[in-house]
Amino acid sequence: MAIQEVLRLYPPAAFVSREALQENTQIGNINVPKGVCIWTLIPTLHRDADIWGSDVNEFKPERFANGVANACKIPQLYIPFGLGPRLCLGRHFAMVQLKVVLSLIISNFSFSLSPKYRHCPTYKMIVEPGQDVQILIKRLNCCNL
Ligand code: HEM
Predict the structure, then answer these.
(1) Which residues line ligand 1 (CB under 6 A)?
(2) Which amino acids does the record list as binding heme (predicted)?
């Protein structure tokens, strides 16, 4: 749930793009000429209050307690790994990796953000911290490493 919520608020891939391959592609009332590239901005979908509710900008992992289908009004708009036939090939691998790494970190260390941390997510090919992430880390006594 925590990973899902992080991927909602800060999807590393900021957009998915598709090229209109046919003449007169119609999306709603918009006519898209052949050859035009359509960018769908993932953070915009993930932060739409009409879909997620008024707490859309809050970090609330529990919104995923009953799955994506119950976390928002239109689950198809939760797309951290894209959608359709070009959906991310590494999505399951990425989720397993994230769970393993996070479990190892939180079972061996306590950590908190340094007062020096400045929150400024930045887009540079992917969405990433704009001024690094300074963290205060303390090894737990029961450290397994
Ligand atoms: C949190 C980690 C990751 C995120 C958020 C992510 C996100 C994405 C997104 C949004 C796309 C575009 C999908 C679309 O156009 O509909 C994509 C494509 C792709 N991703 Fe990932 N990805 C992640 C990790 C990985 C990893 C670990 C691998 C490989 C081990 C991987 C391999 C690929 C490949 C090969 C494609 C292209 C698929 C295609 O065009 O058919 N990704 N990813």
Answers:
(1) 12-13, 16, 80-84, 86-90, 93-94
(2) 88
Residue 116 alpha carbon to ligand 1 centre in Å: 32
Domain's final residue, options 71, 88, 105: 88
Side chain identity, residue 100: V
List CB contacts of 33: < 8 A, sequence separation 6 or more. 20, 23, 24, 25
Closest-lying ligand 1 atom to the alpha carbon of residue 84: 16
Q: Supply the residue whose CA is at minimum distance from atom 31 of ligand 1.
A: 90
Residue 7 contacts residue 80 (beta carbons within 8 Å): yes
* Prediction pTM value: 0.91
Model pLDDT for residues 11-40, shown as the tens digit of each residue: 999 999 999 999 989 989 999 999 999 999
Residues 103 and 40 in one domain: no
Residue 71 has pLDDT above 90, yes or no: yes
Domain end residue (candidates: 47, 69, 88): 88
